[in-house]
Amino acid sequence: MSGTTDTSQWQVTNTSESRPVRRRITNDMSDAAPISGSLTFNQLCIYIAGPCMGIACLISFGLMILHATHLSNPAEQIKIIRITALIPIFAIIQFANIYLGTSAIYLLPWMNVFESMALITFLLLICVYLSPNVKSQSGYYTVHGQKFTGGGDTSGEALARSQKVRRLACQYIAVATLVAIVTDITQATGIFCSNSNSVHFAHIWLTIIRALSAAVAILAIVKFTLAQKRNLSRHRITLKLVALKLIVFLNLLQTMAFSFAGARFTPSAKFSYLDLTISLPAAIYCFEMVMFSALFHLAYSFQPYVVKQTHNSSYQGGVFGIFGIGAAFNPVDIVREIVDGL
After folding, report:
1. pLDDT number for residue 74
2. What is the Cα–Cα distance from 52 to 121, expressed in whole angstroms?
3. Which residues are CB-neighbours of 174 under 8 A, at least 6 positions away?
4. Among 7-11, 179-183, 240-244, which is the least confidently predicted range?
5. 148-199, pLDDT tens digit by residue?
């Protein structure tokens, strides 16, 4: 029909030829056979993902507002708000993907961009914990360079090690953004093929590149954190690290698992390719975000920032924390922090 957009995808099948052959996957889920009564698998996923997304968002927004209305240490709490925002972002994107069908391919890689920003924000939060009186990111790393080896090493080698950790973490932002852009371009031109692990298509290469980049960033930050564990003990840094890294690790693991499973999956009347690669992962993600949103209330609690109100002290978040929320999501400040960390 003229005037419509072709959002179909291609299923790749092996033939005797050296190059795989593709067949079209439609974006229409209405023809799927019910799994029980009139309930299709896609509808079941919606019924699971919808409430989970709502709960995860409410719990996460509650934590962000509590920090914003008790903003006694903006240098730390602004970063905590940004890290916490990863949960509702993941939940909303995944729930939307159930409705988007094959078009979700265009949106999914941008989750990794948000994830990479949360990782570098976590690294900056650690730097603030280590050097609370330093005002710039470069200053954090300079001071940290003297602490990275456990103290006593004030040589240029210690600072170089610190800068290496920063760069290893920051490279994931650049790689994730590039992978997202290339994914959208190759999907639009028909050479991405998310359901194929053939080297003839972009999907397998982009998946490997993104996985390696994420692994390098995660390992660098984990090593950085563990090296400073004694200096960071009062901040419950281990719990904070586990809470965030579990999200990142599960995202990486599930993306690869469903990706490789989809390449070998044979659809049935009740369970389509889109059910396996889009609807089922989305429902699982949304359920997981509920658990992580509760965990974040423990790991990134606002309680340490509650202060006794006197005529000489007050919170800096404004009415209902509006200034705190505004500062946390100010795109200029976000970009400045990331660039300053490069």
Report:
1. 92
2. 26
3. none
4. 7-11
5. 444 444 444 555 666 778 888 889 999 999 999 988 888 888 776 666 555 5
What confidence score (pLDDT) does residue 158 get? 52
Tell me, yes or no, if the pTM score tops 0.90.
no
Please give the distance of CA 4 from its chain centroid, rounded to a whole number.
32
Short-list 203, 187, 178, 132, CA closest to 8: 187
Distance CA 322, CA 68 (A): 7
> Quick one: what percent of the chain has pLDDT higher than 90?
35
Give the span between the Cα atoms of 27 and 326, in whole angstroms.
38
Check: CB of residue 122 under 8 Å from CB of residue 83.
Answer: yes
Q: How many Å apart are CA 49 and CA 282, to the nearest integer?
A: 7
- Name the amino acid, one letter, at 161: R
* Of 119, 101, 99, 102, the residue nearest 111 (C-alpha): 119
| Lookup result for tokens 């053939």 | 198
Q: What is the 3-state secondary structure (H, E, C) of the chain?
A: CCCCCCCCEEEEECCCCCCCEEEEECCCCCCCCCCECCECHHHHHHHHHHHHHHHHHHHHHHHHHHHHHCCCCHHHHHHHHHHHCHHHHHHHHHHHHHHHHHHHHHCHHHHHHHHHHHHHHHHHHHHHHHCCCCCCHHHHHHHHHCCCCCCCCCCHHHHHHHHHHHHHHHHHHHHHHHHHHHHHHHHHHCCCCCCCCCCCCHHHHHHHHHHHHHHHHHHHHHHHHHHCCCCCHHHCHHHHHHHHHHHHHHHHHHHHHHHHHHHCCCCCCCCCHHHHHHHHHHHHHHHHHHHHHHHHHHHCCCHHHCCCCECCECCCCCHHHHHHHHHHCCHHHHHHHHHHHC
Longest dimension (CA), the chain: 81
Whether the per-residue pLDDT at 29 is higher than 60: the answer is no
> How distant, in Å, are the alpha carbons of 18, 59, 69, 71, 162 from that of 169?
39, 28, 31, 27, 11
Amino acid making up residue 76: E
The partner residues of 313 in beta bridges, in order of sequence, read 310
CA 29, CA 41: separation in Å to the nearest integer?
A: 10
